Amino acid sequence: MGAQGSxxxxxxxxxxxxxxxxxxxxxxxxxLSDINGVLLHYEDLVSVLGYFSEIISEYAAEKGLCxxxxxxxMPPKALKNVLRASQQAFYHQIRMAIIVQPEKFLHQQKINLxxxxxxxxxxxxxxxLHKLSKYIDISQLPENFGGTFAxxxxxxxxxxxxxxxxxxxxxxxxxDLIQSNGRLQISPEDATIVAGKRLVADLKKSENxxxxxxxxxxxxxxxxxxxxxxxxxxxxxxxxxxxxxxxRCRMLEEHAEGVNRLLDWIEGPGEKWLLTLHEIGENxxxxxxxxxEHQQLALKSKMDLFS
Length: 307
Hints:
Layout: E1 13-17, H1 42-63, E2 65-70, H2 76-90, E3 94-100, H3 105-118, E4 123-127, H4 153-180, H5 191-204, H6 209-276, H7 284-306
Parallel strand pairs: 1-2, 2-3, 3-4
């Protein structure tokens, strides 16, 4: 069982569910891929599917999910558990459930009856293995369903561990920034940021839907951190801009005051001065006296204007 990262012909992400192999000689470390017995334990199945729902929720909300179930050797009871658990875990995200029909005819009939009676909230299709290509391209079909899409459950778990560890590190860094109130400085060369960007770049190289979703989530977190880290500098730039604006306002106010003083002068001393400009005096002494008065009035007007 796994969310391999392939899609059906409609673009919906595929979650493939297969019965566990009964090979006692196979042993590996416990992981999400180790679900032996889960299919018959409803709560465990819901828990595993719920995890898949969390990591693909953003993509599923837009494109929906396709649940691909290998029912060839799956007991009808287990299949019923899978469908009910899928409905609970993924809620309205499921667009369609494709069931590879059991090998036994009686099981086929029982499953058909269960599908009718249960009335699931999503479309269910019971098909033979060779007709799967109608719904899923061979290149997107997992190998155990006859396709060519390679999927290594252990590798997938390792990648998910890297992604979640990185998301935790980034979240901790973001929290430290918030709590520092601008005292903590984060440079573009910060080890966590650099490692996060490198992981995002690696994930984007893959055509795997789940890796692309994870890359978007990590990039969003990195962008949030870089925005927080830039706030002190932006606040300093804003403070400088405010100071410049205040200086401009002060200069405009002084200019307005100067204009008002000029208007007052024109309406007062200036007007009086203009009225005397036509007087030239009846003799040389009067003319000199008028020139002297004009000079004194001009000097006083300038002092009144710029005082």
